[in-house]
Design a protein that fits this description.
The complex is a heterotrimer of chains A (about 450), B (about 300) and C (about 325).
Chain A (H helix, E strand, L loop, with lengths): L1 H24 L2 E7 L4 H17 L3 E7 L5 H10 L6 E5 H9 L5 H11 L6 H6 L11 E13 H7 L7 H11 L7 E4 L6 H13 L16 H14 L12 H5 L3 E7 L2 H13 L18 H4 E4 L2 E2 L3 E2 L1 E8 L6 H14 L2 H8 L7 E2 L8 H4 L5 H16 L8 E2 L2 E2 L1 H8 L2 H11 L4 H16 L1
Parallel strand pairs in A: 1-2, 1-3, 5-6
Antiparallel strand pairs in A: 3-10, 4-6, 4-7, 4-10, 4-11, 8-9, 12-13
Chain B lengths: L1 H6 L12 H34 L2 E2 L7 E2 L3 H7 L2 H32 L6 H13 L2 H11 L6 H9 L16 H25 L4 H9 L4 H30 L2 H4 L8 H10 L5 H26 L3
Antiparallel strand pairs in B: 1-2
Helix pairs in contact in B: 2-13, 3-13, 4-8, 4-10, 5-8, 8-10, 10-13, 12-13
Chain C lengths: L1 H35 L19 H7 L13 H6 L7 H12 L7 H32 L5 H11 L5 H13 L6 H30 L2 H9 L4 H12 L1 H17 L2 H6 L9 H11 L4 H31 L6
The chains are: A alpha+beta (about 450), B mainly alpha (about 300), C mainly alpha (about 325).
């Protein structure tokens, strides 16, 4: 019986190794891990891969979807097993954290960026993935999104409220629209212990000129400005639907139960889908549904406030990068570089960005002049107009994060981000009722621990 | 097939020269060996590997640094770790008690004849046979603070609670949902095991007791329970082990019930990916369970 | 009179108990069915009865009455991309066909088959090994027996998460994960080994409750040890074996974590839990589809168990003892 089992194992092993050996004489096979798990986006990526493979018959690329929240653990498992993909899509902060761990091929990345031309990138985007020395890079920026508060302009107009672009305006509106008795809520800000929460909070902290580090890398977290921002955030959390919430709660907005929500410009794409759906389904069919009225006008009544002002104006966004995890076979990295070169050719780039118009914005300013880019399949750019578009892509230049202080890249900020110290603190304060000063002291201790 | 191979071993010695005890011993080893080999390869090796890792600061790409007991000391002096231990103990106690008690109750009800019993028995198995991931979405929807039926019933229809609440999200109450979910998911297993034993109880025992004038309660305490003692004892043991290490059933339904397995997962795989610390946690988790099991087997089950 | 009304009360209590059990077991499935049939606009409505029935999610998942792929709907950027001169018309058409063919967004039957095959095989192998192993340490005397008996259960106490990395590492080093067959095999053995300790333990316990006298008589009649296992132990333990089988089957049927790490590269051998998860990630605003996929996942299992039910109950009571 044992013999049978062993035979199974051996047969499987021989079979598998046979395949691997066979592969080495054929084209270079590489894996491309993407966090774009949506089926339509996968289809577009596949077109890009198919086209590239025809032009480069010696390279074969396998596309593998990895949910964003699983990326770190999957990378860890792969690294431990010596099985890293040659090419992967990583948010800038994740890329820096993995890079600091030594998982990414810094030389291949830097060579690539230099070959393509450093000056062609938005410098703000490049800064986010720079190694501290200012010459090398962890990963290649590819596209980015801007965050802001999306709100019901019709509700605001009816109530005579000003757009939510300052602390006072946001709080006033959140209070006004928050009517739990009617199952209507003021605002969605992140209150779970994950990245979304840190993204929402960063914008408030920066608008109050609060940071984690000074430009020399000294920890200055425990400041009056930071405390003020945290207290404000905790106050705002009272007007968010009960319990810890994350970006998925934006569905409440789409159901007409919420006045404002923090979200990236990806919502432009989602709202476009929504308006298509609305075409076949009007509100008249649902008159009996109290509070669940489907509003076909939702798209037209939704506005974005991307800059929040208090002490100073602050914008926030995330750059998505494409990185080269370390390989034992240099041919694999070379193949990945070649594919990325292809992805930066104008037609391929526009195709990629059109997966989510508004959500995916170019990191090369030259692309916005390309008429093909402006003619997106869902008409999002036409709908929001060139002015909004300029605001969004321009915003990529001025993303304010805790990791860049007066032009200096602070690695420790990425580690703090990866460890989710700030979201955990905000979760403790808003959900577990922790005292602000004590929660801040605990967070500061955790940060110092990490830096030792 | 194995029949022939083992009864007539291909050794030069005739089997007749072996004593019956020796033959039993040979057969015993032959029968258990395949199972032991596989378990040894696939479970013991990883355990040893983890114990080994726990002494290192693990680097994913470079060499590991030996740090001695630093990881272990770090874990036991961490308040969060003890919080996770407490959460785990609460989760295990309530989910195991609930599962076994409900399983017992349902088994007793199902042991009686009634119309459509076959259909009802199938229905009861549903929670157990549906994949966890298929059912968690429905559970999350039920407890959603804005559109869930549970909040609608308690707040708007019955008015028991004043304000809308998030039972599944609030860190103070989410463990309730996790426990109820575990009971819901696993009571059919307990019920199956208990029922199979119930049906094996000799009916004449009950008849004799009835003739002696014993009431239903009396019969339950003096006949049913003693007969079930062994199966319930095993059931508790198994469920404690399972629920202690449970990951998916907790993590997929709510991430903020930080039982040890989730705490370990978060430590090892999120943030800075601390595999050494994660391995240490797994080893300590193993030791805690081991101590409990030894105590339980010796003192409670008295094996 | 008193006895009668007491009986009626008991009867009502009994019926209420059964109703409560049914509601408790079924409610989440009712919610699942309800949401799967609602339009998105109706999700916010707590009522379980859909305002209007929406079957589009089921139609989409089962690929019924879906519009024909439309080449003209291909975004212009993609058409521009394919204008590359090195691409032949033939290749262009092929790529486009692949793009518009959204295919099975949830190849339910494939996933179902994968789950069924791996779960049945794992359960069968686990029970097969466990019957002999459990007989060995519950009936035969030899040195090291009690060590094995205890040791087997102890190995089960090590949480699954941390087995993940070592097992993954070994599988990669053996080259198993390079092919779908190897990957499937690796996962199969892992599932089997995850249930084996408990199968051994449960069957061992059960075998001990079978009176040794029955077996002794057979041995005196000249039956071999293995003969008694086949002719006496297995028939007498059918109920327990069925329970252990179901248990082993369910472990593999439910498993998500190992599957997500091991099967990642081969979509064709995804199991149902992984398929459901990837469906959840494949689109936004997905509650109707995820709930109908959940229903589709649950129903065949329900039917299967209804079918097995009779045999199962038969098996449970076939322990040689009358009910």
């Amino acid at each position: 019986m044992l013999a049978i089992m062993l035979m199974f194992l051996i047969a499987g092993t021989v079979f598998a190794t046979g395949e691997v050996e066979g592969a080495s004489t054929g084209p270079v096979e590489i894996e491309f891990w993407t966090t774009l798990t949506e089926s339509d986006r996968m289809a577009t990526l596949q077109v890009l891969i198919d086209t590239f493979e025809i032009l480069n018959p010696d390279i074969s690329i396998e596309l593998i979807p990895v949910p964003e929240n699983d990326m770190a653990s999957q990378m860890a498992a792969a690294a431990a097993a010596g099985n890293l993909p040659a090419f992967a899509e990583l948010a800038a902060e994740t890329a820096v954290a993995l890079g600091v761990e030594g998982l990414l091929d810094v030389d291949a990345t830097t060579d690539f960026i230099n070959d393509l031309g450093k000056s062609r990138f938005y410098q703000g985007a490049l800064e986010l993935v720079g190694v501290g020395d200012g010459r090398n890079y962890y990963s290649v920026p590819y596209h980015g999104w801007i965050q802001g508060i999306w709100y019901r302009a019709d509700w605001f107009a009816e109530a005579g409220l000003a757009a939510p672009d300052t602390w006072e305006n946001i709080l006033t509106a959140a209070k006004y629209f928050n009517q739990p008795a009617n199952n209507q809520w003021g605002i969605l800000i992140g209150t779970t212990a994950e990245a979304f929460t840190e993204q929402c909070f960063t914008q408030f902290a920066r608008s109050n000129d609060a940071g984690l580090f000074d430009k020399d890398g000294n920890l200055i977290f425990n400041s009056p400005e930071m405390r003020e921002a945290i207290a404000y955030y905790a106050e705002l959390a009272k007007y968010t639907p009960p319990g810890p919430q994350t970006w998925r709660a934006r569905d409440y907005y789409l159901e007409g139960k919420m006045a404002m929500f923090f979200y990236s410009t990806y919502i432009m794409d989602d709202l476009a889908i929504e308006s298509v759906a609305a075409g076949s389904l009007t509100g008249e069919n649902f008159e009996g549904l109290e509070g669940a009225f489907f509003d076909p006008e939702l798209v037209n009544n939704t506005r974005l406030a991307s800059i929040i002002t208090h002490d100073q104006p602050a914008g926030y966004g995330v750059i998505d990068t494409l990185g080269f995890p370390k390989q034992t076979d240099p041919a694999a990295t070379a193949a990945a570089q070649k594919f990325l070169q292809y992805l930066f050719t104008p037609n391929a780039y526009v195709t990629f960005l059109h997966m989510a118009p508004g959500g995916m914005n170019p990191v090369l300013p030259e692309v916005t002049d390309n008429p093909r880019f402006l003619n997106d399949p869902k008409g999002v750019y036409t709908h929001y107009g060139p002015e909004k578009l300029a605001e969004i892509t321009g915003g990529l230049e001025s993303i304010q994060t805790f990791g860049i202080v007066e032009g200096n890249r602070i690695d420790a900020a990425s580690l703090i981000f990866a460890q989710q110290i700030l979201p955990q603190m905000l979760y403790a304060i808003t959900q577990e009722g922790a005292d602000i000063d004590r929660a801040m002291a605990a967070a500061e201790a955790a940060m110092r621990d990490l830096m030792d | 097939m194995a029949d022939v191979a083992v009864a007539r071993p291909r050794t030069p010695r005739s089997p007749k020269s072996l004593t019956p005890q020796q033959r039993d011993a040979r057969l015993g080893w032959a029968l258990i060996l395949p199972a032991i080999t596989i378990i040894g390869l696939l479970v013991i090796y990883p355990i040893i590997y983890n114990v080994y890792l726990s002494f290192f600061d693990v680097s994913l790409m470079g060499a590991n640094t030996f740090t001695g007991l630093e990881n272990h000391i770090g874990v036991v002096t961490d308040g969060e770790f003890w919080q996770a231990v407490l959460t785990t103990v609460i989760y295990v106690i309530f989910s195991v008690l609930g599962t076994v008690m409900l399983g017992l109750g349902v088994a007793i009800v199902m042991n009686k004849e009634f119309p459509l019993r076959g259909v009802v028995r199938s229905i009861i198995l549903l929670p157990y046979v549906a994949p966890v991931i298929a059912t968690v979405f429905a559970w999350q929807f039920i407890f959603d603070p804005v559109r869930g039926i549970f909040v609608h019933l308690t707040v708007e229809v019955l008015g028991i609670v004043q304000d809308r609440f998030n039972l599944i999200g609030n860190p103070k109450t989410s463990i309730i949902v996790a426990v109820v979910y575990s009971i819901w998911k696993n009571f059919p297993f307990a019920y199956l095991m208990i029922l199979s034993r119930l049906q094996a109880i000799d009916a004449s025992l009950y008849e004799a007791a009835e003739i002696d004038g014993a009431g239903a309660w009396h019969r339950f305490i003096h006949i049913t329970l003693p007969e079930l003692q062994f199966i319930i004892g095993s059931l508790v043991l198994l469920r404690v082990i399972w629920n202690f290490n449970k990951f998916e059933e907790v993590y997929l339904i709510t991430e903020n019930v930080k039982v040890l397995s989730i705490y370990t997962y978060l430590t090892a795989f999120t943030g800075s990916l601390d595999l050494g610390r994660g391995a240490t946690l797994a080893v300590i988790q193993f030791l805690i369970l081991l101590i409990f099991i030894i105590y339980y087997v010796k003192k409670v089950l008295k094996w | 009179m008193v006895v009668q009304s007491k009986n009626i009360l008991r009867r009502i209590g009994f019926i209420l108990a059964i109703l409560a059990i049914i509601t408790f077991s079924l409610f989440p499935f009712i919610q699942m069915l309800s949401t799967s049939l609602k339009y998105p606009a109706d999700w916010g409505n707590p009522s379980l009865i859909p305002e209007r029935i929406n079957t589009s999610a089921y139609k989409e998942l089962l690929a019924i009455g879906q519009p024909e792929p439309d080449i003209s709907a291909v975004p212009e950027s993609i058409r521009n991309l394919l204008e590359e001169e090195d691409i032949t018309q033939e290749q262009r058409d092929e790529i486009l066909a692949r793009y518009v063919d959204t295919g099975d967004i949830f190849p339910f039957l494939t996933y179902f088959r994968n789950s069924l095959v791996i779960s049945l095989l794992a359960a069968f192998m686990s029970v097969f090994l466990a019957v002999f192993g459990a007989y060995s340490f519950s009936r035969l005397q030899y040195r090291g027996r009690s060590l094995i008996q205890r040791g087997v259960l102890f190995t089960y106490m090590f949480g699954g998460i941390l087995l993940l990395i070592p097992l993954y590492k070994v599988s990669v080093q053996l080259g198993l994960l390079a092919s779908p067959t190897g990957t499937f095999l690796a996962l199969l053995i892992i599932y089997m080994v995850q249930t084996l300790p408990v199968s051994l333990y449960m069957l061992g316990n059960y075998f001990r409750t079978i009176p040794y006298s029955i077996e002794e008589a057979a041995l005196i009649d000249g039956l071999s040890r293995l003969g008694t296992i086949r002719r006496i132990i297995i028939p007498l333990s059918m109920g327990a074996i069925a329970t252990v089988f179901i248990f082993s089957f369910m472990i593999a049927w439910n498993e998500y974590m190992f599957a997500s790490v091991f099967l990642k590269s081969f979509k064709n051998i995804y199991t149902l839990p992984l398929g459901l998860r990837s469906l959840f990630d494949s689109q936004h605003l997905i509650w109707d589809r995820i709930m109908s996929a959940s229903m589709l996942t649950a129903v065949p299992v329900i039917v299967m168990f209804m079918f097995v039910q009779k045999r199962l109950v038969g098996g449970l009571s076939a322990g040689g003892v009358k009910e």
